[in-house]
Specification:
With 223 residues, the chain is an alpha+beta fold. The protein has nine helices and seven strands. It folds into two domains: 148 residues, Reverse transcriptase/Diguanylate cyclase domain (Alpha-Beta Plaits, 2-Layer Sandwich), CATH 3.30.70; 66 residues, Arc Repressor Mutant, subunit A (Orthogonal Bundle). The strands form two sheets. The chain has a five-stranded mixed sheet with strand order 2-3-1-4-7.
Length: 223
C-alpha cells in the first residue's frame, strides 16, 4: 500500500459567491500547472463537474507540496479544498473528455474532501485538506492530517506578500531573486519568511520529503 498512488479531488471554496466563476476555474488550472511543472505527477489536473477538478500523484509528499503552492499562488479571492485518497486506481474506459477511473483511491479522496468540508464548517474554518489512506492503523493518516491542520492555518493567516515569498521558496527560488522581484532586501525576505511561518512551512515539507533514515537523523535520533 505504501507505493499506491494518491488520487486528488479539488473543489473551489464558496464558488457560488464569486463574481466570475469561469475566471476562478481558469486560475485553478493555471496555478496547478505551474505548481506541478517540475514535480512528479502521474496525471495532470483535469476538470470534471461544476467547480471540481481531479489529479493523480505518485505519492503524498508531492501532492502536499503542489497543493500548498496552489493555495499560496491563487488570487486572494479564490481558495480550494483538497481531498487526498491513497489506494488503487483503475481505468474503466477512455472517453472524449479523458480517462474514466474508479478504485479505492478515488473513494477515499471523496471521503477525505467531504471530511475536510465537514470540519471546515464545524470547528476548523481554516482547514482546506484531508487525507484518507485506508490503512488499518491510521498512523499515517493522523500524521498527514495533523500537518494539514497546521499548514492550512498558517497559509490562511498569510498576507499576499507572505504568500508570494513562501510560494517562491517552495518552488525552489533563491531569496535574492525573490527580493529583487518584491523590491526589498534579502534580509527582509528572510525576516518575512520567519515571521509569517513560511520558513517553518518549507522546513516541514522538506522533512516530509526526506528519506525515512534522514528523518531519524534530523530528529536527533540514531545515526
Amino acid at each position: 500500500m505504501q507505493n499506491e498512488p494518491i488520487a486528488l479531488i479539488i473543489d473551489i471554496v464558496r464558488s457560488r459567491e464569486l463574481k466570475d466563476r469561469a475566471a476562478a476555474q481558469a486560475a485553478v488550472l493555471q496555478t496547478f500547472g505551474a505548481a506541478t511543472a517540475e514535480r512528479s505527477i502521474r496525471q495532470a489536473l483535469w476538470p470534471t463537474v461544476g467547480d471540481e477538478f481531479q489529479a493523480v500523484f505518485a505519492d503524498i509528499t508531492q501532492a502536499l507540496r503542489a497543493t500548498a503552492i496552489v493555495r499560496l499562488t491563487l488570487p486572494i479571492e479564490v481558495d480550494c479544498r483538497f481531498g487526498f485518497g491513497q489506494g488503487e486506481i483503475q481505468e474503466i474506459e477512455q472517453a472524449a473528455t479523458g480517462s474514466i477511473q474508479d478504485g479505492s483511491a478515488w473513494w477515499r479522496a471523496r471521503a477525505a474532501i467531504e471530511e475536510a468540508h465537514r470540519r471546515e464548517d464545524k470547528s476548523n474554518p481554516y482547514l482546506r485538506g484531508w487525507f484518507v489512506s485506508g490503512r488499518a492503523s491510521g498512523g499515517a493518516d493522523s500524521i498527514v492530517n495533523s500537518f494539514l491542520l497546521m499548514r492550512d492555518k498558517v497559509i490562511t493567516d498569510m498576507r499576499p506578500r507572505e504568500r508570494r515569498l513562501t510560494a517562491g521558496v517552495l518552488l525552489g527560488r533563491a531569496q535574492s531573486a525573490l527580493a529583487a522581484m518584491e523590491g526589498i532586501t534579502q534580509s527582509a525576505v528572510s525576516q518575512n519568511l520567519r515571521k509569517s511561518g513560511g520558513a517553518a512551512l518549507l522546513a516541514a515539507h522538506m522533512l516530509f520529503e526526506a528519506p525515512s533514515d534522514s528523518r531519524v537523523q534530523a530528529g536527533g535520533g540514531p545515526r
